[in-house]
Specification:
single chain, 623 residues, Isoleucyl-tRNA Synthetase, Domain 1, 3 domains, six-stranded parallel sheet, four-stranded antiparallel sheet, binds 5'-O-[(L-methionyl)-sulphamoyl]adenosine
Length: 623
């Protein structure tokens, strides 16, 4: 038989691609285990399966479907149980944001970095990992000292107030950070001094004198050759630091070890283009780094020399280990430091990659501590292609975005509009288009029309799939249940967050034509069994999709799962597959719209209700 004919008859083509002797073995094994397989395959597609098997067995076309289910169920089981990082093994996962300067209130850039980490942290938790997600504020340094003076406040009062804005933002955006660290905390300061002493004891610190360019805005030193038109390469103003005593870290000694480390750990810096930039920077030669200042006071004092305060970046980078209790003595049970260090992922903006990918691993290696596993540098948001800055008056306030459009649309837009790692330009127009197209017109629509139809025609219960599955049904279920396998490496290994949401959208966008082609409204008149099966397949596929949308749009995904009557204890990624399939006959709540369309508040009004008044879970009309 030709492969094409075999396909038409419904034989899995992969089977026919094996050599004939292998096919004989498979057929013999298959024949001898039909009843076991029947149970297994039914369990893949159907709910809580046992109660439904007798009924399915009596169906004449069951064998045809079972063959298909067999090939699918094997991969579905592998999805959940066999992949590294799945919930079969609970292991620690540590993800961090940069800690934010408290010289001003948070803007979209800060919200963006923490949101990305929040999505990753939620994803890893749902995938069964023991997650520690850290964010916080960077409260020392000349920049903060100057901002406090400008505000006419003491530095401590000033940082207490501004730091609170970042905590409030975390609440508003429903970030699930496990800890919020502040560098003015006593335990953090003690940790920074401990790291200093460790470096000093190992001979990596010496006293010298610094003279050169410094940018207070960047809190960074620049060489003459790095300046562009008399400014820092970032565009920040620089000042000449007149020769002053300073402690130095012997960074020059770490040039070769760092290059060896990058070569041995090709995934340490991402994206690839940024990795290449860092490597060429290090190859260009590393100078010893000035790590203390004497001309201002707002910082952690150098141990046994309090004329000096520590360089703010040395202070700030240490937050990643001070938050875990470093340098606490080893206890009998693993300490947070032992459980979570080295960090799995530091997410940073591209502007601060050098500090994280060069200075930080050098400090750690010099102190005999393990460097982090990976640093991902994301791009910058611009507005009308211009840098966002207070002086240009184009700052985008994340709190206002949430008020205008709702939280989940904001989260969804920021995570899906721009490939993570690239720069992106913000506009209300792009926001409205993306959110309405994908959330309202595709995901919301498929949910709404399938559930509204079920409410009317299936007594408001999960329908019972009594007819045999067709190829289209199996393909639909396979796409939805195979999603975890697709998205896990995208999130966990690559941080390709935009591709993660694209993968979910692809399945939803397959669901709408599936529903149209199967046309349950026609089947209602001609074949009620088939109608029930189509509806079951649709909502069962949506269940898997909604589970995987949870990290991106948590409140909406939870609402969708409520509408499918998915119990709260069946909402982990381990439940994406058949084992947790919907149980026919389960009563469903009254369907309601989850994704109202958003509107551009700056667009000319045509009498429509103000979008600011729309609530995220407002009831919408059934399509
Ligand atoms: N305090 C340092 C980080 C110390 S970490 C040990 C710092 N703070 S920051 O507040 O200036 O910036 C924090 C993060 O916000 C950086 O990763 C930065 O890239 C990000 N963003 C600031 N503006 C941004 C955009 N316009 N777009 C995207 N992210 C940007 O640096």
């Amino acid at each position: 038989m030709h492969v094409r004919r075999r396909q038409q008859l419904g034989y899995p083509t992969t089977f026919w691609s094996f050599p004939s002797f292998f096919r004989v073995i498979v057929v013999v094994m298959y024949a001898s285990s039909t009843s076991a397989l029947r149970r297994k395959s039914a369990a893949f597609v159907f709910p809580g399966a046992r109660g439904y098997i007798p009924r399915l067995r009596s169906h004449s076309s069951l064998l045809f479907n079972e063959r298909r289910f067999f090939s699918t169920s094997v991969s579905a089981a592998a999805t959940v149980k066999d992949s590294p990082g799945s919930n079969s093994k609970k292991t620690g996962y540590y993800v961090t944001t940069p800690i934010y300067y408290v010289n001003d209130k948070p803007h979209i850039g800060h919200a963006y970095t923490t949101l990305a980490c929040d999505v990753i942290a939620r994803f890893m938790r749902l995938d069964g990992r023991d997650v520690f997600f850290l964010t916080g504020t960077d409260e020392h340094g000349q920049k903060v000292e100057q901002s406090a003076a400008k505000a006419g406040k003491s530095p401590q009062t000033f940082v207490d107030e501004v730091s609170q804005n970042f905590r409030s933002l975390a609440k508003i955006m429903e970030f699930t950070n496990d800890k919020f660290i502040r560098t003015t905390q006593a335990d953090h300061k003690a940790a920074v001094q401990a790291l200093w002493k460790q470096l000093e004891a190992a001979g990596h610190i010496y006293l010298g004198a610094y003279e050169g360019w410094y940018s207070v805005r960047d809190e960074a030193y620049y060489t003459e050759s790095e300046l562009v038109d008399g400014k820092a390469p970032t565009g920040a103003e620089v000042v000449w630091v007149v020769k002053e005593p300073s402690y130095f870290f012997k960074l020059s000694a770490w040039q070769e070890p760092l290059l060896e480390f990058y070569a041995a750990h090709p995934n340490f810096i991402a994206p690839e283009s940024r990795r290449n930039e860092v490597i060429s920077f290090v190859k260009g030669g590393l100078k010893d780094l000035s790590i203390s200042r004497t001309t201002f006071k707002w910082g952690v004092p150098v141990p046994e020399d309090d004329d000096h305060v520590m360089y703010v970046w040395m202070d700030a980078l240490t937050n990643y280990i001070s938050a875990l209790g470093y340098p606490e003595a080893k206890g009998s049970s693993p300490t947070p430091y032992q459980r979570f260090w080295p960090a799995d992922l530091h997410v940073v903006g591209k502007d601060i990659l050098r500090f994280h990918a060069v200075y930080w691993p050098a400090f750690l290696m010099a102190a005999g501590l393990a460097p982090p596993r990976r640093i991902f540098a994301h791009g910058w948001w611009t507005k009308d292609r211009q840098k966002i800055s207070k002086s240009l008056g184009n700052v985008i306030d994340p709190v206002r975005l949430v008020e205008q459009f709702g939280l989940d649309p904001t989260r969804y837009f920021l995570m899906s509009e721009v490939p993570f790692g690239n720069d992106g330009d913000f506009s209300n127009d792009a926001f409205v288009r993306r959110v309405n197209n994908q959330l309202a017109n595709e995901l919301g629509n498929l949910f709404q029309r399938s559930l509204a139809f079920i409410a009317k025609n299936c007594e408001g219960q999960v329908p019972e799939p009594t007819s045999a599955l067709t190829e289209a049904d199996v393909a639909m279920l396979r796409s939805a249940r195979g999603l975890l396998e697709t998205v896990r490496p995208l999130v966990r290994d690559e941080q390709a967050l935009h591709r993660y949401s694209e993968a979910l959208n692809r399945v939803v966008n397959e669901g709408n034509p599936y529903f149209d082609e199967q046309a349950p409204w026609t089947l209602r008149k001609t074949d009620k069994d088939r109608m029930a099966t189509v509806l079951y397949v649709t909502v069962e596929a949506l269940r898997s999709v909604a589970l995987l949308y949870q990290p991106l749009i948590p409140a909406s995904a939870s609402k969708l799962l409520d509408l499918l009557a998915v119990p709260s204890e069946r909402r982990m990624f381990a439940d994406v597959g058949a084992d947790a399939a919907l149980t026919p006959g389960t009563p469903l709540p009254k369907p309601e719209g989850v994704f109202p369309r958003v509107e551009d508040p700056d667009a000319p009004k045509d009498g429509a209700a103000s979008p600011a008044k729309q609530k995220q879970h407002k009831k919408t009309k059934a399509p």
